[in-house]
Amino acid sequence: MNLAKRMDELLTARAMALLRRAGSAAEERGERAYLVGGPVRDLVLGRPTADLDITVVGDGIALGKALGHELKAYSIHTYRKYGTCTIKLPGGIRMDLATARSESYARPGAMPGVRPGRLRDDLKRRDFTINAMAVSLSRRGFGTLTDPFGGLKDISKNKIRVMHKKSFLDDPTRIFRAVRFGVRFAFTIDADTLRLAQAAASRGLLDTIETYRIHNELKKITEEKSSGRMMKYLDALLSKYHKEGAI
Asked: Residues 79-123: pLDDT tens digits?
């Protein structure tokens, strides 16, 4: 499947130019760049997106810095630990570039340890299949979709499904995101995914998360148009988790 035509329809001319330049700049370095995650999901759904989230099979920081200087970004921020670079451009445009990586978790709720990986590794570490797709930004094959974990199929079935059985153990904040995406897109949380979310909550794994991370997830919910429905859904999902200190 190729999404180039849909990208032209749903993205601004400026965004398209930036994506094409990121892809060609990566190729000039012997690397490959991909639009990944939420923006790809939104394109598949036919929704416009302003997010430019790019994974680089190579060195995301080096590519981000080079693009930032070339494009006269007014700020360039790097996060060496996670191999990411954020550049902010005139007009309020932001590009996030990250080195393709795999992740491992020392314990539930911990921040992940990372190491460079392939595109498949980078997609496998994500929260849900609908967010585990990538679009090539290379000049040849621009717009070609990579979907190794069935994101397209789950979108066609209006389904939220985790990548693996340990997903909520690794990162319990994914419980909040499952609810947010489910309500936003009128999707159903897959039965196994729902069971895994409730099991993680009943084990008290939400207590393993730093408070600011929970606040960030709740803030994102409150910023949604259907925030009330999301909070009701979340309350119902966590109805068995009302011990002292729980949300």
From this structure: 988 899 999 998 889 999 999 998 777 777 777 777 888 999 999
Tell me the per-residue pLDDT of 144-156, one tens digit each, with 9 for 90 and over.
Answer: 999 999 999 999 9
215 burial via Cβ count (<10 Å: 0-12, 13-18, 19+): exposed
Q: Please tell me whether the overall predicted TM-score, pTM, comes out greater than 0.85 for this model.
A: yes
Residues facing 114 on adjacent strands: 103
Which residue in this structure is represented by tokens 């370095």? 29
| SS3 assignment, position 83 | coil
Q: Given CA atoms 150, 155, 157, 160 in this order, what sign does their dihedral have?
A: positive
Domains of the chain: 4-149 (3.30.460.10), 158-237 (1.10.110.30)
- Report the DSSP beta bridge partners of residue 89: 93
Token reading at 119: 């595109």
